[in-house]
Structure formats: structure tokens, C-alpha cells
Amino acid sequence: MLVNESPLTEAEEGVVSSAIGCGISVHKELGPGFREFIYEEAYCLELAARQMRFERQKRIAVRFKDWLIPGQKIDLVVEGIVLVEIKAVPRLRPLHRQQVVSYLKTTGLRVGLLLNFNVPLLKAGIRRVVL
Fold first, then answer.
1. Residue 3 domain-assigned (yes or no)
2. Which of 34, 48, 116, 125 has a CA 20 to 30 Å removed from the CA of 83?
């Protein structure tokens, strides 16, 4: 794959870019140090201000063999395209990425963003996951 080649469509890339922009806006205003729910609330306010559709604390059912197990929630789905998992942790760990991968597989979505707001610059706290 070429450096600028993406497995996502141009429209999907646009939503990803806008979702990242919302995160950067929130981080510029608040900085690090708050709890996750504060960043989630601010992020939703920023999405709404940009007139972007989102589902917050979306409930999903996890398939286990022939059963569906209810009770799992994901932080956000933006424009029905991008799963967003918000963190405020000292550092992202492989388990956080795997959490996003599991959520993507369960929802059928192709792209997820892991946003860790507990960093000096949000750029260092962004992980993009594409299936």
C-alpha cells in the first residue's frame, strides 16, 4: 500500500478527520487532567456544535456462539462511521487498542479512534484503528 493510500473511502476519511478535529478542539480548551466523562461531555458538545450526528454510550450486544449477550456500551459512534473510545489515562496500553478492535468487530464498523486526553498534546494520544 502506498503511503497516502487508505483502505477507507474519502467520505470515511472526512469523518475521521472531523472527529479528530473535535478532539483537538476539546483538548486545546481543557488540556489534560480531567476525568473521562468530562472529555466525553465536552466532545459531544463539540460534535453538536459542528452539527455532526453521534450516538453516545451506545449499547451493543456481544455475540457468543449462537447467543447475544447484552450490556456492553461503547463511548461514541460518529456519523454512523467512526467508533470513538475516550480515555484519560497516564498512557495507552495494547489492551486499549484491543478493546477498540473488539468493539469494531462486534459493531461491524471499519474505523475507530482511541483518544487519550491525558497528554500534553492530543496528537500523542490519538490511535487510529482500521479493520
1. no
2. 34
Residue 18's domain comprises 10-130
List own/partner pairs for 34-42 with CB under 8 A and 24 or more apart: 34/88, 34/117, 35/88, 36/86, 36/87, 36/88, 36/117, 39/86, 39/88, 39/115, 39/117, 40/75, 40/76, 40/86
Q: Between vectors from CA 50 to CA 104 and to CA 33, what angle results, nearest 5°?
A: 70
Mean local confidence (pLDDT), 63-76: 95
Q: How many domains does the chain have?
A: 1
**Residues 25-47: tens digit of each pLDDT:** 999 999 999 999 999 999 999 99
In this structure, what C-alpha cell is assigned to residue 127?
Answer: 490511535
Is-above-0.85 flag for pTM? yes
CATH of the domain at 87: 3.40.1350
